[in-house]
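dumping this here before i forget
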Amino acid sequence: MTRLWLSFWLLLIPALAYPARLPRNVIPSNYQLTLAPDLSKGTFEGEEIIHLKVRAPGSQIVLHAVRLSIREATLTRGRRKITGTVAMDPKEQTATISFPRKLSAGGADLHILFSGELNNSLRGFYLSRGKGRNYAVTQFESTDARRAFPCFDEPDLKATFDVTMIVDLGDTAISNGAIVSDIPGPGAGKHTLRFSQSAKISTYLVAMAVGDFQCLTGAMDGIPIRICATPDKKNLGSFALESAQHILHFYDRYYGQKYPFSKLDILAVPDFAAGAMENAAAIFYRETALLIDDKTASIKSHRTVADVLAHEMAHMWFGDLVTMKWWDDIWLNEGFATWMTSKPVAEWKPEWNVEAGEARTMVDTVRIDTLQSTRAIRTSAETPEQIRALFDAIAYKKTSSVLRMLENYTGEDVFRKGINLYLSRHAWGNATGEDFWNTMTEVSGKPVAAIMKTYVDNPGVPLLTVGVNCSGTETRVRITQEPWKSVLRRDSSSLRWSIPVCFKSGDPTGQRCELLDHPEETYHLRGCQQLPLINAGAKGYFITDYGKPGMQKLAPMIEKTLSPEERLSLAGDEWALVRAGRRTIGDYLTLLDTGFRGETDSSVLTILADRVGYIGDNLVPRLSKARYQYWVAGFLGPAAQQLGWTTRPGDSDEQRKVRAIVFERLGRTAEDPEVLTHARDDVEALMKDVASVDAALAEAAFIIAAEHGDVALYERMVAHIKTAKSPEEFYRYVESLASFRDPVLIDRTIAYALSDQVREQDRANLLIQLTKNPAARPKIRTLLLEHFDQIRSMPRLTVFIKALGDDCDAVAVLEMREFFGKNPVPGTERTIAMAVEQVQECSTLKQQGSLDSFLQSHGVGAQ
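structure:
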């Protein structure tokens, strides 16, 4: 039944009708754009002159416009002015301007007067609300510039922009250029800001924001940098400014050319759907991803600020300077920026252990990529809904992991040379995936194109099965590759990959990399190796199965012989094999017992703790709960005893993170009485003084206390939401509400999430947190049925639908199938299929009988 349901959705995806792309008979070269927002009325007036090149004779100009009122459109050529007739097509999101006679080839100026509404949907030119006032902000990626001004809203139709903003006195504006003039009027209470001409960019990279923003200022390598926010949060940008300066200096050294714009503005806005947006020279942010109290914020929050800045600033070169030709290559932008993020951060903050974090990202991505409903990195998309659906973990994280593998295969210096040649060849233009990998092949002299093509065009992840035979002074390693087949996917496939395989063995020559591009290959290694690792450094994007006997040999050596990245990869692969039915849950817990009991790396512990929590939340029978909790306490107990629950002088960031991971899992899964008491005491202290407890422990303490909290604690958390002094503190209280287990309090949190008290940008996040609470999941399914009209308008609807996959009840599969069958949402078909598949997979794992056997065989008893 489930398989039919998945097939239905996957068949539906390519069957959608595609609108035509804009004709290329006319292309823009420059926009002179003036916008005058009225923040009190929530409207704006606009005027633009688009300098055009008419390439082929015709009597019509077609461009994009949606929810705009076009009052007048005239074309000027020399002294001749022709008035056009405008026909709007809401379905195609276009405006067709027809003229009484054909236009001959050459230059022309299109003059348009228009108006629009500052919408509440966090897209296009929209209304944002801060403390006691309104702001106007843009978010155009991917296809929403057309909601702010009539334009040629496709990425390869680049142009320069001369922006002018008419705003209230006392307000300022931010755009891609710097302010070059500020004059009074027109009219009382207004002033006009004119910005320098932008570089040649795509429409989705244009940016405008209006309000009483204030900025911290700095500079690096001759480039002025500003961190801007609403006046009450200006001083929370100091760490972001420091981060941006370090990151810019790194990129100036890494790339073959310096920062390509004349300034860098980074703005936190009160309402923003995404985490951040790489508008050229004017990056816009959600407040919580940029603004922190540098003295009291957690390591996690500091890391978030640095990581997101590194990602968005990488786009100034990879995405803004060189842009994909069409949205099916958006992975080239987002995956590259995700891969690049770690480099400046690792140089600046080596104590953050960035390399292990990259391996953890790969493990998380493989988890998604093993689903039947996964997609290829490059996937066709034509409609706005299809294009938006491409901004997912496959584009960002899988591409990043593939690039990491390729860099390891070619060598860092060679890979960097290839990147810089690619950027110099396509600067201020557009490029395709082929342009990128052909350049990398040329520079490296290695078959990068063959590797990338298989990874970009093939959906899913390859499974490599390893057989080892030692004879005398030689080890023969037989590796076979096949497409991954999950619990729900038993079909055969002829897909093949070109895979860099890097051996870690006793060979004194060090790491050896080979290309596996056949279904089966045998490799010969020096010496007699018990079990040589075939994914040295955990850089390869594949799943490895060494066989159960092989893992029994390797397990005792894991802590002594494998790096944190390799341990991460191994643990991730073994969990994937559990999900596919090749291992049992008992096998997995045995591996943890024999190979990971002394684990001290925070990235590895994060993955292990997540798996332990998943098993406890979803797979442990009620009668076995006490025995499982006892095992968890024993598994994590050594780390707890070593670190304790109080920060010690001289503790490193890594030790603080490990303490928080162990603390959270012992509290949430093992329900250790000491931890529960400590968590409640920590929350009491934090409510009085935000600096009283190590910030690394604060998030875990709040979740644990809420899971065991009562009405009185809930009320106090609600009260503190109103007095929070930073975005981190605010969201700590808000998201904690989702962890309460009392059904009455769950109902209150759902009602709060749907109320006007919650910002539109935060509604989905709070509902997503509720999906992580097993006690709340049935109510979330009911919520979907009863309030879908409100939910489907949320800016992050797709992320919420994805979170429904956290459920583990077979009933949920039937309910989701029936509901979305009756209530289809264009652009979410694949996300729905993935969520359904994950729920089905979890409910299937429940039927494994190995967990009780493991607990009994290990002498675990309830105490």
